[in-house]
Specification:
Elements lengths: L4 E4 L8 E7 L18 E4 L5 E5 L2 E4 L1 E17 L13 E16 L4 E2 L9
Parallel strand pairs: 1-7, 2-7
Antiparallel strand pairs: 3-4, 4-5, 5-8, 6-7
């Protein structure tokens, strides 16, 4: 039988909570470069907790949605039989560590609006 061990970071400590950002559509750049690890935009909240995402010269208004079933962010760890927590069975292989929980998502489903900073009155 295959056993998968999932441990929570610190037995008594709560896991940090992360938030998922859901964009309806795709992000396109002038140059086709991967966006992983790069700055995409600024995330702000209004006084009424409405999320606002500013990407370049565009602004997106969103809403906070509570997920029906939360997600767990897992980190895979390899372990050997001698470092097993259980002494009755010889458990080796893979274990998972819960790094964070995701219970909410920020949903941006409207089209981005352009930010216009200076409009001349008349020419």
């Amino acid at each position: 039988m295959v056993q998968t061990v999932i441990s929570v970071a610190g037995a008594s400590a709560d896991c940090p909570e992360w938030v998922l950002i859901d964009l309806q559509g795709s992000l396109e750049t002038r140059h086709p470069v991967p966006l992983s690890g790069r700055f995409v935009g600024d995330l702000h909240f209004t006084q009424k907790d409405v999320p606002i995402l500013i990407i370049g010269h565009h602004i997106l208004y969103g809403k906070t949605v509570h997920l029906e079933k939360p997600f767990a962010v897992l980190v895979k760890k390899e372990r050997s039989a001698d470092t097993s927590m259980e002494t009755d069975q010889n458990v080796s292989g893979t274990s998972y560590h819960v790094k964070a929980l995701i219970r909410r998502k920020l949903l941006f489903k409207t089209r981005p609006k352009p930010i216009i900073s200076n409009v001349p009155k008349k020419l």
